[in-house]
Write a structure and sequence with these properties.
By secondary structure, this protein is mainly α. The protein folds into two domains: 91 residues, no CATH class; 37 residues, no CATH class. It is 80% helix and 0% strand. Pfam families: Got1 (PF04178).
């Protein structure tokens, strides 16, 4: 429960920090809360094993490098690196998420609209196993 709360607050602070023109303090708090919450949810050892797998080192470097750059004080560059690293790290989960969202009544209808459907299909297809 604590981990889910920390992760939720982390995502909230990250979102709020981006809305307020990349506020350094909010983004730094959001990053720390997100990583701490993830560690509480799945455990320290599993978090370490997830981030430091051999085939995910590039993604981990971008993600944690982005966190470090945000903490240093360059929020825009840090968030760009973080988002890229996030998509590289979690791209194996996207097909599952897209499949789940397509089953939700209103969101599924929106994802099946002609212009959006092809974009979602590209995001949802993945040959990489997690």
């Amino acid at each position: 429960e604590i981990g889910i709360g920390l992760t939720g607050f982390g995502v909230f602070f990250l979102f709020f920090g981006m809305i307020l023109f990349f506020d350094k303090a909010l983004l730094a708090i959001g990053n720390v809360l997100f990583v701490a919450g993830l560690s509480f949810v799945i455990g320290l050892e599993r978090t370490f094993r997830f981030f430091f797998q051999k085939h995910k080192m590039k993604a981990t470097g971008f993600f944690l490098g982005g966190v470090l750059i945000v903490l240093i004080g360059w929020p825009l560059i840090g968030m760009i690196l973080e988002i890229y690293g996030f998509f590289l790290l979690f791209r194996g989960f996207f097909p599952v998420v897209v499949g789940f969202i397509r089953r939700i009544p209103v969101l599924g209808y929106l994802l099946n609209l002609p212009g959006i459907s092809s974009l979602v299909d590209k995001v949802g297809e993945s040959n990489n196993m997690v």
